[in-house]
Amino acid sequence: MADQKKLFIIDDTEVNRAILVEMFKDEFEIVEADDGDTGLKAIAETGDAKKIAAVLLDIIMPRVDGFAVLDQLVKKELHEKFPVILITAETATDIEREAYQKGAQDVIHKPFDPVIVRKKVDRAIELSEHRNELEERVAQQTQAIHKQFQALIAQQEKLNKANAELQDNNNRIIEVLCTIVEFRNMESGQHLQRIKGIVKIIATTLMHSFPQYGLNDHLIEVITNASAMHDVGKITIPDSILMKPGRLTADEFEVMKSHTTRGGEIVKMLKDLQDEEYLKISFDIARHHNERYDGNGYPDRLKGDEISIAAQLTSIADVYDALCSDRVYKSAYSPEKAHEMILAGECGVFNPDLLTSFELSRPELEALIAMTNAEE
Q1: How far is C-alpha 20 from the geometric centre of its chain's CA atoms?
Q2: Which of 52, 77, 105, 158 could lock onto 124 through a cystine, CB 3.0 to 4.6 A?
Q3: How many angstroms separate the CA atoms of 118 and 280, rounded?
Q4: What are phi and psi of 47, to 5 degrees?
Q5: Could you give the CA distance from residue 10 to residue 313 in angstroms, rounded to a whole number?
Q6: Could you say which of 3.40.50.2300, 3.30.70.920, 3.30.43.10, 3.40.50.620 is the CATH number of the domain covering 6-112?
Q7: Is there a contact between 85 and 52 (Cβ–Cβ < 8 Å)?
């Protein structure tokens, strides 16, 4: 029992608690509470959040209801340490939507279906443990690299040489992280090089054709290198979702979409190893490369010029490369077909100026695809 993690079941109905206890008593140390206030106190008394596997939390309770308990856990950022799964008898989507918006990992419905409940709880715990393990690993690796880098800086005789080493270290870190993502996603070894090449080609055309975007050679170089970070958050996505050959379920798609926010968090972990401009653009690209010009993207539903030109360039480059590449769920389209699909709006809405630059860049883009395909 001492080695078991705690599973909190907070529900004012005794029979509901008994059903859930019976399901999980062999796997976890069960902590029951019949109201929100008691549940919060029990969680606080646990001390170490690592000892908590999950919290199953009924929404409708007297005095302190489930949403109020969730608000307190979110305020203390505890929902990032362990999953909070809400329990409800309601079937309306408004309740689920509010639960997810407030920070719940998942929702289970009454009356309980043992198969569904177990699957959702196991999946939420697995995802949370995977995320926490990754955060700890990245933090440790970042700290180790930072110490090594500081030692390197101390040996440099000139400031310009130290700055050059800083940029080189940035690129190595990005290359390692993105190569891991590329490997887990079973993508071509040329994927990142193509993304960077596509971004640079379209950005250069945009700079000459539409100077109002303020692009210059330096900024294009930063955006090009930072674009490699666009999918770094996918390192947190379970293989069962990341490499699923068929269509994702709604729940699975919600997990997949989280790679944008998690990617931004991973970039923030590297703040001591990146200059401010590079950090800002890398974070923006990781979080916003799936936004769409008409506001139908994610995670922040940005619209139009609310989306940075760096994120927009990475977005169209990612879509174009995805169309031209073999994936677990499809075969590659020809570059000609990919162009037609993007210009016809089949892949979402893009900035008209960006589409013009994309079309003007077509010969260079097709040459890039042909060259990288030949190298594979």
Answers
A1: 31
A2: 105
A3: 41
A4: 80, -75
A5: 47
A6: 3.40.50.2300
A7: no
Q: For residue 38, what are its two tokens? A: 């008691």
Mean pLDDT by 10 residues, the chain (376 residues): 82 93 92 92 90 92 90 89 91 87 90 92 89 82 79 64 65 64 55 90 97 96 91 84 84 92 87 77 95 95 96 96 81 92 94 97 94 75
Three-state secondary-structure class, residue 74: helix
What angle, rounded to 10 degrees, do the helices at 309-323 and 335-343 form?
Answer: 130
Q: Which part of the chain is CATH 1.10.3210.10? A: 132-375
Q: Which of 5, 234, 257, 330 is catalytic?
A: 234
Position 376, amino acid? E
Class assignment of domain 132-375?
A: mainly alpha
Count of beta carbons in the 10 Å neighbourhood of residue 303: 15
In the chain, residues under CATH classification 3.40.50.2300 are 6-112
Can you tell me the distance from the alpha carbon of 40 to that of 8, in angstroms, rounded to the nearest whole number? 10
Identify any residues that bridge with 8 across adjacent strands, giving them in sequence order: 31, 55
CB atoms within 10 A of CB 81: 16
234 is catalytic: yes
For residue 136, the number of C-alpha atoms closer than 13 Å in the C-beta half-sphere is 9
DSSP codes, 282-299: HHHHHHHTT--TTS--SS
C-alpha–C-alpha distance, residues 97 and 89, integer Å: 14
Within 10 Å of residue 102's Cβ, how many Cβ atoms?
16
Q: Map residue 106 onto helix, strand or coil.
A: strand
